[in-house]
């Protein structure tokens, strides 16, 4: 290698074989400088999300006293994520629409959670929205195959645990941010075709129903 280099003139070696100096190389891109409207660069693989969430559950499990405490902490974590997801989706909507609007009716807000929020977090819409026939203040978002629960094995002593409490926290944060305060919980409702089917139960505060009656 040395002998071949010696036969090259300084001009040729400078033009064809020189490497850029460290001083000319640009700085590495900062994650905070990414364009928030480019959703593709922000996507992560389902495997990465599942692994991260599994680690979160295991870490939290070692620091709680029971199932209820674990679900409460997962709900709190989801609430923090939901607050930021709402900010992000609102920013993207404002940037893409000439006349962005804020939902003031309940059903359009629930549809936005079912479609836009679920797609922003899990890459696809939820499977259904249902209204309780027994209680006028209850609605349900159905997810037949929760992404975050696909690779989590719940031990027998925690058989009542629903890790989708994380998703319930996201929904609760978005509803609070939109002005529809509610208590949101997650419940396993398996079927023969969907053994991991989960229902996100939304119990609205009375003030929401009163406002809906006025807006009719």
UniProtKB/TrEMBL annotation:
This protein's UniProt keywords: Endoplasmic reticulum, ER-Golgi transport, Golgi apparatus, Transport
Chief place of localization: endoplasmic reticulum
The keyword Transport is annotated on this UniProt entry: yes
Localization (cell): Endoplasmic reticulum; Golgi apparatus, cis-Golgi network
Biological process per Gene Ontology, one example term: endoplasmic reticulum to Golgi vesicle-mediated transport
Gene3D superfamilies in UniProt: Trafficking protein particle complex subunit 3
Xref: InterPro entries: NO_sig/Golgi_transp_ligand-bd, TRAPP-I_su5, TRAPP_component
Family: Belongs to the TRAPP small subunits family. BET3 subfamily.
Self-association and partners: Part of the multisubunit TRAPP (transport protein particle) complex.
Official protein name in the record: Trafficking protein particle complex subunit
Organism: Lentinula edodes
